[in-house]
Design goal:
CATH superfamily of the largest domain: Type I PLP-dependent aspartate aminotransferase-like (Major domain)
Number of helices: 13
Shape: globular
CATH architecture of the largest domain: 3-Layer(aba) Sandwich
Distance between the termini: 43 Å
Number of strands: 14
Largest sheet: 7 strands, mixed
Strand content: 5-15%
CATH class of the largest domain: Alpha Beta
Radius of gyration: 20 Å
Length: about 375
Amino acid sequence: MRFHASLINQYYKKWQSQSPIVLSQSNPQPLTLEELESIIGSTENLFDQKEALDYSTVQGDETLRSVIAELYDQNNAENIATFAGAQEAIFCATHSLVEPGDKVVAITPIFEPLIKTAQDIGCEIELISLQAHDQWELDLNQLEDAINDDCKLLILNFPHNPTGAMISEEQLLQIINICERNNCWILSDEVFRGLEHMPEDRLPAVSDLYEKSISIGVLSKAFALPALRIGWISCQNKKVLDQTLQVKDYLSICNSFLDEKLATRVIPHHDQIWERNRKLITNNLDQLNKHFEHYQNKFKLSQPQAGCTGFPIIKDDQTATEFSEQLIRSKKLMVLPDELFLTELNGFRLGFGHDHHAENYRFLL
């Protein structure tokens, strides 16, 4: 098997000598320890001083899995497995679901590893694009045409990275119905669930609605805690869940016991953390919109509905790659162009979840 190098990581490495201010982060401003303790209480006595600093279990600490299960409606601790971040979860889940030659359908623009893992396995990939001209709508007729009897897996990602788009619950149910009729699995990247700008827009987890699905979560995005390398999957199918852990045996084997201990304290406070993130995100988005109002002749920014990234489309002849590289050279600001998200739409990912984002928007344009 040949592994593709990460396009985003290559891009960061290419321009790291310029020491740019990064305006493309997909996670909210990380919590400080002071902020975190104001929410969950002191971490001073988090560990029993006589407790052995041992390995965790392969599936993950049972107490942590029980806490994660509270984020879902139809699952319990036995339906949860933890991983060293979402990327390991994506890798293990994909390897548990597909084999060389299988057909995989995915929606672009897309977080690259969601596609590349299946591509490295040797799958046939069919891509469907969100409609940039129509507020990033998903064409369900096009999706239904792509998902047929020989389609093994559909990859979903809502709330969507990089556009911030959402689908309705009715649309989600239609997608599940299409997959169910065609005996197709769904791998649902839900790492931004909890960052809906209007909480009433939050979708049910796909793993709560459909037995042939895997939902992925992580602490680095909606929980604003990338320092804790804890991701997880939720899956009602025990055989497939066990298969993901067989792949994990050759990777991290198990998570950090210390990370899992702290994560167990954090996750029950998800509502407070999500509200903190939402306030920062919506304030920065307001600032971003004010700047883009003056440049409608150059950019089209469809209003993000969730998460802390948008994907402005460039209207003139300049390509997104040219724009992004010019921005780094002239203003030391970094955004990520379309090619890194496996799309030919002429746009770039722009973040609005960090403290420094709003103060730099005026230099962007």
